[in-house]
Amino acid sequence: MIRLYINILVVCLFSACQPPFLDSSLGKSGCRRCHSVELDPAHDIGCNACHHGTPEGYTRAQAHKGLIPMPSHPSQMARACGRCHAREVSLAGSSSHFTLSGVIGAVWSGFFPGEQVPTLLKLPIEEPLCTEKGLISDALRRRCLRCHVYYQGDDYTGTTRGTGCAACHLSIKAEGPWDHRFRGKVPDTRCLSCHYGNFVGWDYYGRFEIDYEDNYRVPLVEGEHIQRPYGIEWHDMTPDIHKTAGMGCTDCHHSGPCEGEERDVTCTDCHLEDKTGSHSGPPMDQKRIGHRPEDIDLVACAVCHGVWAVQDRGRSLIRQDLPDYDDWSYLAVQGSSEVEATVKAYVNLPYGDWIIPRMLDKISGEYRQGLWFESFTERRWGLVELGKDVYGRLTVIRPILDLSLTYVDSNSVVRFDNLQPKTIDENLGSANATCPGISPLWLPYSPHTIGPVDAFRTIYVRSWLNKGF
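and the corresponding C-alpha cells:
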C-alpha cells in the first residue's frame, strides 16, 4: 500500500500541467498553474483573451485545445491585438517594417529593372528552381529577410524575439526570461534584434561586423570562443555622437509604424533655427557651407558629418542543395543559426551520414531543401563615399547591390552561376537609384556614425556646390 501511494505521488510530481487532485487550488488556477508569467496591468486580462485555449482543462492536452501560441503573429494580430488597438494594427500592417518594401524593391529593381516589384507575401515560390525570379525570391525568403515580423529570428540570444506586434513590444531572449509586459517605448535591444550586422543601427553603437572566416575571429579567451549574442563578432568603432550623448533609437525614430506618421527623420527637425530665432536643438550656422538654407536640399548632413561607413564588397549568396560541409567548415559562423548548426552537426560525420539539408522560409514558415551560404570578396570600413541620388542631392553611398547569386542542385549541377544585378532603370524614380556616372551597385543610405565635421569633405562640398550641381 505504501509503495502504491509513493507511485501515485511520483506520477503527480512529474506529470507536467496535471494537478495532483482535480478539486485542488491548482486545478482552479487556469493557465498560471503551469505558466509563471508577468503582465503589465493594462494587459492582465486573462490568458485566454489572446491565446484562447481551454483554461479549465486539467491536462496539457485539454488546456491547449484551441490554443493560439503566437496571437501577435501577423496572421493573428488583428483578432488579438486589434480588438483594443485596431488603429495601431492597421497602421503597422502597411508600414515598411511589415512590408519591407524598400529592401525588396531595391533588390528586385536591381535584377529586374522596370518590372513590377512583388509584395512580401507575393514573392514567388518555385521548387524546383528554374527561373531567375525564383532564385531571387528564394534568397529573399530564406536568407535575406530573417528580420521580418513573420519570423522569430535566428536562434541567438540577441536575435530571438516575438512575431508581429510582440517583435518590438515584448522582451527578447537577450533580456532574460520572456515575460508578457508590453512596453510602448521600444528599447534599443529590440531594435538591434533586427538592426545588427553591418546595417544601420549597428553602426550607431560603433560596431563593425568581423568577417566570417575563422582566421578573422576573435582569439580564444581562456581557451573558449567569446559569446556571440547576434551570431557574429564585431570590432568596436567610434559610436554615433547621439549615442554618446545617451540618446536611444526611438529618441529620433519616434514616429513608428504603429503611430501613423512613419516618415524619414531628418537632422533639421532638431538642428535648424526657425524664423523666431528659437530652436529645439543646437542652432545651425546658416552662413557655413552645407548649412545655408539653399544647401539643405542639395547636401545630406552625413556627407560632412559621417565619421565612417560600411563598404562590404562582393557579397556572394550560394544555394547548395547537398553541400560539402568540409568546404564550408571555416565559414560556419556567418550570422545564420540554421547554417551554423547544420554545418557543425555534419562536418565531422562520414559522408554516408550526410543528408540533404533544409532551410526555413521566413515568411511562410515552411521548410525547403538547400542551404543559402554567404561570403564576401572583402569587408571594409572607411571614410564615406559620395554620390548623387535621383534628385541630384549629394549623399553617402555604399555597395548595397554589389552581390551575386549561384545555385548548385543536389546533383552538383550549377543551375545559375554568378547572377548579378542589371543596370537600374532611372525612369522608375526610385530614391534608391543613383544618377548616371555612379555605379548602380552603390546606393544611397544614411550612416548612423555622425560626429565632428570632416574638413576635407567640407572643402569638396564647397567645390561641388560652386560648380552648380
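(Above: one complete record from the training split.) Residues 23-69 form one domain.
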